[in-house]
Design a protein that fits this description.
Blueprint lengths: L1 H10 L7 E3 L11 E3 L13 E4 L3 H7 L12 E4 L6 H8 L4 E6 L9 E7 L5 H12 L2 E5 L6 H9 L1 H18 L4 H21 L4 H8 L5 H9 L5 H20 L1
Parallel strand pairs: 1-2, 3-4, 4-5, 6-7
Antiparallel strand pairs: 5-6
Helix pairs in contact: 5-10, 6-7
């Protein structure tokens, strides 16, 4: 995700000086300098934002080295799942300006969406900067209640996996109905991606788009009677989102 953000910033020509702290050598865009450790950063380094794009289990060890920037002048933008604003206050101090965000993997192609939540020390200018940084790879929404990030994680953070599973299931059902495997997968991928793009571009809501495809007494209606039954897709998805939300809360605790 950190690489996707960096590529998005360069693509959107956010030309502020950028540095990456990464112990392993990696290929970076022109003009971006790598430092093996935070201690190697210049003494006068005064970043407007520090983006924390590390694995959640590594944060507790990594954060103390950045406490020198936690004076409110720098905003910390975290994309680490499950790490709360309280966690950052304990690690960085009560004066740190912190934005916690949950992006998703379509950010890799500039089509992601992120929901962000700020602590009280984040200024309007820092909020705007965070929006620009996250917006380089997709849409951005803000939540005033941090607790909403648990269901956000369940819906959009984990959501791409549900869509990929839909492609798998659609292809497998096509094979069971007699389609060759390669054709079934091609149809499933193109149908899901095309329908998603139609939903993105259409002024009609999803329910109306569904109705537009459904002719009375036709094949789509026959399939939807199964999918929209009392034990069909809607209650199954509610249970799935509830399970992911509960797990997100457990990880935060």
């Amino acid at each position: 995700m950190g690489g996707a953000l960096l590529a998005g910033w360069k693509r959107k020509r956010l030309n502020q000086p950028m540095a990456v702290v990464e112990p392993q050598p990696l290929k970076l865009p022109t003009g971006v300098k790598r430092y093996a450790t935070s201690d190697a950063l210049p003494k006068r380094f005064a970043p407007a934002a520090i983006v924390l794009a590390v694995k959640p289990q590594s944060l507790a060890e990594a954060l103390p080295a950045y406490r020198r920037f936690a004076d409110g002048e720098t905003v910390f933008l975290s994309i680490a799942a499950g790490k709360t604003l309280r966690f950052f206050a304990r690690a960085l101090g009560d004066d740190a300006a912190v934005v916690r965000a949950m992006p998703n993997t379509p950010a890799a192609i500039g089509r992601g969406i992120a929901v962000a939540c700020a602590n009280p020390h984040v200024t309007p200018a820092q909020r705007t900067l965070s929006t620009r940084l996250l917006g380089a790879v997709g849409e951005v929404a803000w939540a005033d209640d941090e607790a909403l990030l648990d269901p956000v994680t369940a819906v959009s953070g984990s959501g791409p996996a549900y869509v990929f599973l839909l492609i798998e299931c659609l292809a497998e059902a096509g094979i069971a109905a007699g389609l060759p495997a390669e054709l079934a997968m091609k149809l499933a991928r193109a149908t899901v991606s095309g329908s998603g793009e139609l939903a993105r571009l259409s002024s009609e809501d999803a329910a109306q788009l569904r109705r537009n495809v459904t002719s009375p007494g036709g094949t789509t209606e026959a399939a939807l009677k199964i999918l929209m039954a009392g034990d069909g897709m809607a209650p199954l998805m509610r249970r799935a989102i509830a399970a992911a939300t509960a797990r997100s809360k457990e990880l935060a605790d």
